[in-house]
């Protein structure tokens, strides 16, 4: 279907009006969260593009607070699961228990039955628990005994991992890391923001509780519109070039990257890059995607999808370094 300029103009106006709630959400979250605009923006992209988010940062950077506040602002059900080495799959998804009065087994649902799941320190749990979470993330359903339950919509897993402690942690399998649409690395606040954080925490009376400014149904409607955002063929080609450059860097005159990359992005990387770019355009209240949208979310979508060789690790080359080289080399439409 060829989009005429009048179609795009109409779509642009429609999305400009429909995306007004993004500002409302940002204002509401700003009451509680100081700084961290980047993280909040990425959480909203995950929410609008129906993708899960992996947050990496040291403790105390308001990861839990942000996710909890976002679920309150959307009037959604929030559930926090603290991952520990002795956690069992049944602790996450639920189990069958025997009811003596009824003389039968009944299902007791686990904390996964919510709209927002915070999987705190996901790399502390063993593989069995991670695979139980994986089914929920991918299939959006849970099987307990011989019954399959559909999970509520919107359903979003936000997992956190601590990059500094490796003691007693289990590395996330590549297949599971690939299930996360975005991997967001969170930094420290600025001096001014930190001063504000201190004042806010020393004077709890001054803080106002988060109000529900929109409903889960509004998010479902917004998701349909996000998919309608217009993406030109040139932008599609740009996305494909970026992903293919991680697989075959020599085709883009990047021979020096060949020994540093053990594997490149999967087709899921291309899909997520396109979807996240559409969500980003929607948040910027535009009905079409521009190359800048792709570039701005490229690191979050791709950083966990580029495998590094031992040579890269020996030379202290990160996936971000590789992606910077690729973005500089690939021709922008």
From TrEMBL:
Keywords: ATP-binding, Nucleotide-binding. Residues 52-182 form the ATPase AAA-3 domain. It comes from the Bacteria. One of its GO terms (molecular function) is ATP binding. Gene3D superfamilies: Magnesium chelatase subunit I, C-Terminal domain, P-loop containing nucleotide triphosphate hydrolases. Residues 259-326 form the ChlI/MoxR AAA lid domain. The keyword Zinc does not apply. Belongs to the MoxR family. This is MoxR family ATPase. It comes from Chitinophaga fulva.
């Amino acid at each position: 279907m060829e989009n005429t300029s009048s179609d795009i103009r109409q779509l642009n106006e429609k999305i400009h009006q429909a995306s007004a709630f993004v500002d409302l959400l940002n204002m509401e979250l700003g009451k509680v969260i100081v700084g961290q605009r980047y993280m909040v923006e990425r959480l909203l992209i995950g929410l609008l593009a129906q993708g899960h988010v992996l947050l990496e940062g040291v403790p105390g950077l308001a990861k839990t607070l942000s996710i909890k506040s976002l679920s309150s602002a959307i009037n959604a059900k929030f559930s926090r699961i603290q991952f520990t080495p002795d956690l069992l799959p049944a602790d996450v998804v639920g189990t069958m228990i025997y009811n003596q009065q009824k003389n039968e087994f009944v299902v007791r649902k686990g904390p996964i039955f919510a709209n927002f799941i915070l999987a705190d320190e996901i790399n502390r749990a063993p593989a069995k628990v991670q695979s139980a979470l994986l089914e929920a993330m991918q299939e959006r359903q849970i099987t307990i005994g011989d019954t399959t339950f559909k999970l509520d919509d919107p359903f979003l897993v936000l997992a956190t991992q601590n990059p500094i402690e490796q003691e007693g942690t289990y590395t996330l399998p590549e297949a599971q890391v690939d299930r996360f649409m975005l991997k967001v690395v969170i930094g420290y606040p600025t001096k001014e923001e930190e001063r504000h954080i201190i004042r806010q925490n020393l004077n709890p009376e001054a803080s106002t509780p988060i109000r529900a400014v929109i409903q889960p149904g509004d998010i479902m409607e917004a998701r349909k519109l996000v998919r309608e955002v217009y993406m030109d063929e040139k932008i599609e080609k740009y996305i494909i070039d970026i992903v293919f450059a991680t697989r075959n860097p020599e085709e883009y005159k990047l021979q020096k990257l060949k020994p540093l990359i053990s594997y490149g992005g999967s087709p899921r990387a291309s899909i997520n890059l396109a979807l996240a770019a559409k969500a980003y355009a929607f948040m910027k209240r535009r009905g079409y995607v521009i190359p800048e949208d792709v570039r701005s979310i490229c690191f979050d979508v791709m950083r966990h999808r580029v495998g590094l060789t031992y040579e890269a690790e020996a030379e202290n080359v990160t996936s971000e370094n590789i992606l910077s080289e690729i973005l500089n080399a690939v021709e922008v439409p």
